[in-house]
Write a structure and sequence with these properties.
The chain is of the alpha/beta class. The protein has helices at 8-15, 21-32, 34-39, 42-49, 53-62, 68-79, 84-87, 99-114, 119-131, 142-154, 172-175, 196-206, 242-277, and strands spanning 135-138, 161-164, 183-188, 209-215, 226-230.
Length: 280
Amino acid sequence: MPPKEKPFLARVREALPTLHPAERRLGEFVRDFPGELASYSGSELAELAQVSKATVSRFVKRLGYESYEAARRHARTEKQTGSRLFLASATDTAGVRSAQAHVLQSMANLEASFQAISDAQIDAVAEALLGARKVWVIGFRSSHAFASYLQWQLTQVIEQIVAIPGGGQTMGEHLVSIEPRDLVVVFGLRRRVAQMDNLLKAVLRSGARLLYITDEGVPLLPGAQWHFRCHSLAPGPLFNHVAVTAVCHLLATRAIEKAGADGRARLRGIEALNEALDEL
């Protein structure tokens, strides 16, 4: 296996102490806004950083690239991983985007996401959730919050549901118990953990049905029964997860609706115990 290529930002950080003043100014600019190199031509970057085009050429050579285009391709590849540094723009520092800009982007994300998710798919997932022997909900990093949220909402009508892994637990301790009668919900939002591909392969090998919820940049996963891709563009350095929340809300609501009399009985029992325990 060939050695792993040194990350773009690691090259910049290592080179900074050895650079001449103009190159260092460019290096500090690229370190803070690496997405600009991924997006602009060499002359445009020179103008943004207020250096000469020759400085840009010398800078990328010092980073170990044969050309500016080679450096830009590497930066683009890392930008796709979802690093917030790569999402920040130098022009953003001049001021904040309006609330209306965020609202409009949220609406656009919702529309684009649900254009690819049909009512029939939502119904099928809800029925699979209710009919599974056990439901496993998995998420890491930013995905962990959505996994916990979906598990918390579905617990109202699904007894055998768990969000994994818990504190101090390994995935193997759970994956060994997954059966073909189960349903696994995996959140794979950027930035995904390194073991995600191996985790998905293990889930598929188990024979369980899989719902994969990701951002729009992930190719459709062969073998997954459902793959919902939520658009997450935002006017700023953070991803917009409004569509992800909406998908979770819709799945939980539809499952509660389809749970029927059994679901209502469980809900009544929960409320009665909450009152008896004086918890809420």
